[in-house]
Amino acid sequence: MTIAMIFVFLGLLALALTIYLAKGQLSSGGDLQKLSTQLRSVDVAAFCNLISASEQDYLRGHLPSREFRSIHRERMLAAVEYVRCAARNAAILIRLGESARQHSDPSVREAGEKLLENGLRLRLYALQLVPRLYLSMAFPKFGPASNPLADAYENMSRQVVRLSRLDFPTHDMSSAL
Amino acid sequence: MLFARYYLWIGPHVLLAVFLVCLLRRKLHGQLPIFTSFVIFELIQFIVLFTISRHSPLPGAIYGWVLVFGEGISSILGFGVIYELANELLLSRSSSASVLRPGLRAMLAVLLLGAAIGSGALYGISMQRVINTFEVIDFSSYLIQAGMVLGLFVFARALRFSWRSWVAGVALGFGVSGCMDLASAAFRGFGKTSFIAVDLTQMAAFHVCVVIWLVSLFLADHAPPFPDGKLKLSDLELWDQELQRMVRR
Asked: A115: distance to nearest CA of chain B, Å?
């Protein structure tokens, strides 16, 4: 009976989650004008500084261990916020790409398809990067100094740089970024 | 009560037949061929079982084994539909496929483990071999289907995929039905009363599922037009070039 009750609970929980997630999927995505107001500007230089390996080494060498850990934690938290901003902006790009895919002009459709794919790739980067930043927060040794992670950070910083430069004249998105 | 039982048995299948006709007339069956096979099989299974139950002089055990055999095929087709949905909604987008595939595989492995544990715990709850077999197939397939559909929605949410098409409706229908069936399937072995109650719940869930499929098919006709008339190709190309530079290294 206990096992049965557990599966009843799991089934109902899964049902509630499925409906909640589907509701978000099936609801209107909103127009681009509204979405453009949700864009957040990203200070790329500050982000690069936060994830810089040399900066981290400098802090490690000049600060007491306890203070370094505390500061490193705050820096990684700030970096996570930057990555989330970039991911949110990418979500808006994805919406734009999806809209363009419905256009009657095949060349616009094709451009929208490419835009969508690149936006998705950017979100995947962001999804992979956030847990790594949290890991680095807990264990500074696994921070941006390690090569694969440094690459990922660099990629992400490039993404953020480009995002901050993206210009969308019809909706004044460039100023928002 | 008898009316409700017959309605919940016949009604959803009548709606399913309407759905199949609409699907074929709009030539959408090519988009999800396994799902179309699933729908056709469900209709055939219903006709066979209904005929056996109403007119056959054969013993009740025959009905039971036909039901078990049909449930097995239906489960296999159901897994095929989940794969088809995953492919249509997530994996066909080349950039995400390589990352999402391992995630989906891991999820499937966990669900298989859960199904094995659950089936082991629930097996033997009834004295009849045919009912036991039915319960194991029933429970395992619902657990995996519900879990996989939920997983697809979680991935879509994380990546901000948009599913505004009838395929999303198919996924939602499967998800709702799978979750309700999972919640009720574990009670199937607790006597005849619970067996009937579980049957009614699952038939009601299937009814909801078919209604969702039908609604999503009709809503697909009214897809919103391209929302931004001011958007130009040059803008799109500019954005795309920027993004390509971002992700290339």
From this structure: 5
